[in-house]
Amino acid sequence: MTACSSKLQHLSYVTEAAWAESSTSATGAVTIPITAMIDASQLGRKMIDPGRVTQFRNERPEMIPGTFDGVEFAIEFECVGHGSSTSGTPTITAYESLLAWMVGASASIVAGTTIVSTSTASSLNVVLSNGYGSGYLVRVGEKGDGRGDGQWAVSASHATEVLTLKTALPGADKPAPPDVVHSSVIVHTPESDCSVTSRRFFLKTSDQSWILHGCFPKSLKVTGGIGQIMKWQATIGVSWVEPVNATFPDTSTTAPWTYNAAPVAGGSVFLQAHGTATRQIVTARQVTVDITLGIQPVTGFDAVSTSQVVVGAKRVPDVIRLSLLVDAAGASASPTWWGAWATNARYHALLGYVVGPGAAVACYLPNLAWSGSQPTQSDLDGLNRVALEFEAGADTAESTDLGRSAMRWGFA
Predict the structure, then answer these.
(1) CA of 197: how far to CAs of 91, 241, 314, in Å?
(2) Which end of the chain is more exposed for a tag (fewer CB within 10 A), N or C?
(3) Do residue 128 and residue 169 come from a single domain?
(4) What pTM did the predictor assign?
(5) pLDDT tens for each residue of 130-186
(6) What count of other Cβ atoms lies within 10 Å of the Cβ of residue 383?
(7) Is residue 249 within 8 Å of 258, Cβ to Cβ?
(8) Are 134 and 214 in a shared domain?
(9) ∠302-304-308 over CA atoms, to 5°?
(10) Same structural domain, 95 and 212
(11) Which of 213, 206, 205 has the alpha carbon at shortest distance from 25?
């Protein structure tokens, strides 16, 4: 029998009850609509050279089959919004749950609300009496309304029908009835929890298929700039692998998110001194959030498989970097960003990538420390630009894990 097309693949997963359990059950499995083929060539064990002393020059003793240590695979999928309106109370989607597993946590969900009377750029009079604690991401109004403009904002406090913002909104006219304050589903870094749960993945192809036990996130990267579709690229570690005779195509798993992503457009990049809500938008031409997940595999003897050495994983500090390329200003003896770097003051940034209903995506970094070289000037597209580099950290002055989180993503 000849081999079938390598482009035919299917990937799904379930949450495991115990790390790397031997179960083959796919009940409730969720499909991931991947956008790139998975390379299965690294899923097997490797032979170990015994290094034995021999009598003959080319004598070759048998190798020793190794363990599943270091086994991993990479996936790519679109960075989409929530997929439907968040003017009410959204329910976390399979996509958002997958990201929460990788990044570490998701926030409790608060209902959307509406503006009840004319407000200011940083203080909204709303119907909902409370619920938005410090650090929630919301989207206000719709693109082109001249008020909230559908842009993203971050809550500072919410009591007695007043929602105060950490990041002021745009518009000559301020939010007013019947403008909607759209809620969001928020995925964030955990700052007080180092646990990692495992998942069981099912990789099926038109020929061979595998069950991947005890899977855990190892790395996460977001790609895509202005006018492009953002995508997530993740590396998944595997505790042990089991080949399986599976039915393909697979039509039994739970339907994945079926809505499309939207290109990066229409949003804004808010960059301001930490603790200052005044709206300050930078003319960013390139935005890069570089994420190095802090995940440490735990090895041990109490394994399920005879060739398994990874029996758990723990979260250690992440490294999250923000790089912005902004327009160079005119001639000055005291350039803005040259001086800002020298003062070494903290910043916060709200990156509004997409603002369309159901497709909106944003990232908030609440506590940025300068890093890299002092900003001078560089070339991009034949124009003068200035490179700004930061490292993101926890906002330790906050009282909740969401408020403290060094990185949070909102989907609306």
Answers:
(1) 21, 18, 9
(2) N
(3) yes
(4) 0.95
(5) 999 999 999 999 999 999 999 999 999 999 999 999 999 997 779 999 999 999 999
(6) 10
(7) no
(8) no
(9) 80
(10) yes
(11) 213
